[in-house]
């Protein structure tokens, strides 16, 4: 018997690591992976709540989150490839032509 | 300490270790591999909650297809290690303490006010039959919408990643 | 029901036997391939080491162990060493959910001939296959050489593309059987029509699915006609160019173990598993299902090797076009038709 809050704390830790990675990393691909980490943390809390309230919709929603993550990963990686082709760099700080 | 708690703690520790490793590693391929271990241990956590179909789908799709896409792009673009720059130092100095503070507050609030009870091992068996029934009866509209979404994503990705046309360059040379 | 200790001991014994049998089967699949391909090409194949060259795998094993294990200096060491480990682990783990016969009674205990009976066994095998792609991709990338990178990228792109058709071809079988569990899928194929034609899934209308599965399996295991990523004339040796001795042997083993897993899965899903004519005294009746399973797996492997000796290989763009533009729509059509027929019948 594991208290529900343990699952939520684990999900929160993963989410926080995702946000941290999004903020401190400079490589575009690693930033993307931090977004995926955030989505995984959220998936865990969905499944945990589904088990707690005995309602299967939580597990169904995980599918939709995964599908959206897949679509976003595909488009995002295509954008990264396009950016790499023109800017020749994967460092977020150097894609700054529009900066004042 | 029963088996459920022990397994939860072991795989939870692997999840957190993988997440922290993703932040600490400088080369994106190492971050990708740590993310894969996070996803695999999350699949075990789902199994502990009884969501067997979701766990299998997590491994097949998330760890087996989406992360392969990431690894592909890293291999294709020959991503190297990250360099330290001014912006990254500031973000590290402010971001890490701020995030740790914020998440500690949230975790403390959750643990303080958690009168919500426990879940047992295999609490809600996610039978594929039941999930399929729900997916095609109650959640039919989101299902169809997400299939259209994937179609749009495929078209967008193909257009964005394709090489630019050579015809314009040919005309300039004439 | 078995007590926990009995279950544990039985499982450990089954794991040891299964791994041992699988590794021996891998070795003798290599022997079978060399003999069959040799005869197709009008030569003998191994004949010198033992009768009919049957000890050739032993000689090969000894050679691999004693070869110099060369690690080039320019490789990315952690992934270089991890990649063959991932490949072999995934290849050997799939055997854990494959049942080979009816449950047997030993010492009064009823023991199923399967290491674990999971009710999502088919998804587990698909998941392990998906993770096996990493062995190839990381091997190609960590070797830090042009041929390896190209071979690794091509092989993983090919494997990921054909995984979809593989999965979709299996959904027709799932619709007919109503469960992901391999025991139940085989149980749904028992019996026969008119006592002559067995009720295997291949005769219950899944013949197109069988051929889609066959083709996708060739692509998944990187065998001819889809073996461009490791073709000698194209890419030296593709993703395992920079590997020598034991690590190369691990890739080799992983490829053949994948072949055997695919063959076992095909017999379970399409050819009725261990169902076949049962006759004779009780001892024979206990052994016959396993013998039928074994025969069907060997037949499927023979088809694999036969195709290898006969067909030329696809070019890479032909390969990808075939997988996405022909095989995938065919698999979807098969799924729709099967679902329609089952829905109209009930």
Written overview of the protein:
By secondary structure, chain A is mainly α. Chain A has one domain (4-88): Helix Hairpins. Chain A has 3 helices and 1 strand, in the order E-H-H-H. Chain B is mainly α and 174 residues long. Chain B has 7 helices and 1 strand; from the N terminus they run ααααβααα. Chain C has 346 residues and is mainly alpha-helical. Chain C has 11 helices and 4 strands. Chain C has a two-stranded antiparallel ribbon. Chains A and B meet through strand 1, helix 1, helix 2 and helix 3 of A and helix 1, helix 2, helix 3, helix 4 and strand 1 of B. Strand 1 (2-3) of chain A pairs antiparallel with strand 1 of chain B.
Record the SSE blueprint.
The complex is a heterotrimer of chains A (100), B (174) and C (346).
Chain A: E1 2-3, H1 4-24, H2 28-53, H3 57-87
Helix pairs in contact in A: 1-2, 2-3
Chain B: H1 3-24, H2 28-48, H3 52-77, H4 86-112, E1 118-119, H5 128-137, H6 140-161, H7 167-173
Chain C: H1 4-40, H2 56-66, H3 77-93, E1 104-106, E2 109-111, H4 121-142, H5 146-177, H6 182-187, E3 192-193, E4 197-198, H7 207-220, H8 232-235, H9 245-269, H10 282-310, H11 316-345
Antiparallel strand pairs in C: 1-2, 3-4
Helix pairs in contact in C: 1-9, 1-10, 3-4, 3-9, 4-5, 5-7, 5-11, 7-11, 9-10
């Amino acid at each position: 018997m594991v208290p529900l809050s343990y699952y939520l704390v684990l999900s929160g830790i993963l989410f926080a690591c995702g946000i941290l990675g999004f903020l401190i990393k400079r490589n575009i691909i690693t930033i993307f992976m931090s977004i995926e980490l955030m989505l995984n943390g959220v998936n865990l809390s969905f499944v945990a709540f589904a088990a707690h309230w005995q309602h299967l919709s939580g597990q169904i929603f995980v599918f939709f989150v995964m599908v959206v993550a897949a679509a976003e990963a595909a488009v995002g990686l295509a954008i990264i490839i396009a950016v790499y082709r023109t800017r020749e760099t994967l460092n977020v700080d150097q894609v700054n032509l529009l900066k004042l | 300490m029963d088996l459920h708690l022990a397994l939860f703690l072991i795989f939870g520790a692997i999840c957190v270790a993988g997440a922290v490793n993703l932040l600490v590693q400088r080369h994106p391929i190492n971050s990708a591999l740590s993310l894969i271990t996070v996803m695999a241990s999350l699949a075990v956590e789902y199994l502990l909650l009884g969501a067997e179909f979701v766990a299998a789908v997590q491994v097949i799709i998330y760890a087996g297809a989406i992360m392969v896409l990431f690894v592909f792009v890293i291999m294709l673009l020959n991503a190297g290690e990250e360099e330290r720059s001014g912006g990254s130092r500031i973000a590290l100095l402010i971001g890490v303490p701020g995030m740790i503070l914020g998440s500690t507050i949230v975790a403390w609030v959750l643990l303080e006010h958690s009168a919500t009870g426990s879940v047992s091992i295999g609490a809600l068996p996610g039978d594929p039959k039941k999930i399929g029934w729900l997916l095609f009866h109650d959640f039919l509209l989101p299902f169809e919408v997400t299939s259209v979404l994937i179609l749009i994503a495929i078209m967008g990705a193909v257009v964005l990643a394709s090489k630019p046309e050579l015809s314009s360059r040919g005309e300039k040379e004439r | 029901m078995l007590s926990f200790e009995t279950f544990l001991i039985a499982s450990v014994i089954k794991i040891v036997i299964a791994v041992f049998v699988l590794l021996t089967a891998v070795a003798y699949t290599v022997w079978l391939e060399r003999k069959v391909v040799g005869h197709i090409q009008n030569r003998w194949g191994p004949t010198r080491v033992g009768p009919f060259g049957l000890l050739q795998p032993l000689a090969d094993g000894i050679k691999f162990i004693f070869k110099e294990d060369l690690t080039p200096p320019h490789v990315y060491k952690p992934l270089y060493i991890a990649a063959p480990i991932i490949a072999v682990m995934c290849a050997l783990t799939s055997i854990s959910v494959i049942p080979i016969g009816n449950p047997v009674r030993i010492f009064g205990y009823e023991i199923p001939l399967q290491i674990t009976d999971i009710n999502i066994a088919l998804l587990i095998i698909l998941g392990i296959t998906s993770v096996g792609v990493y062995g190839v991709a990381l091997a190609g990338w960590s070797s830090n050489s042009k041929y390896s990178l190209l071979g690794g990228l091509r092989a993983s792109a090919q494997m990921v593309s054909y995984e979809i058709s593989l999965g979709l071809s299996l959904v027709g079988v799932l619709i007919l059987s109503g469960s992901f569990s391999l025991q139940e899928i085989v149980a749904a194929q028992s019996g026969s029509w008119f006592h002559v034609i067995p009720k295997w899934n291949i005769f219950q209308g899944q013949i197109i699915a069988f051929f889609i599965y066959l083709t996708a399996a060739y692509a998944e295991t990187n065998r001819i006609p889809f073996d461009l990523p490791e073709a000698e004339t194209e890419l030296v040796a593709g993703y395992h160019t920079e590997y020598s001795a034991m690590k190369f042997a691990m890739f080799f083993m992983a490829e053949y173990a994948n072949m055997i897993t695919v063959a076992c899965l095909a017999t379970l899903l399409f050819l009725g598993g261990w169902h076949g004519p049962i006759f004779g005294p009780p001892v024979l009746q206990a052994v016959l299902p396993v013998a039928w399973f074994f025969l069907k797996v060997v037949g499927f492997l023979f088809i694999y090797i036969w195709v290898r000796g006969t067909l030329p290989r696809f070019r890479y763009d032909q390969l990808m076009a075939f997988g996405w533009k022909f095989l995938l729509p065919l698999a979807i059509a098969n799924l729709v038709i099967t679902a329609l027929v089952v829905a109209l019948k009930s």
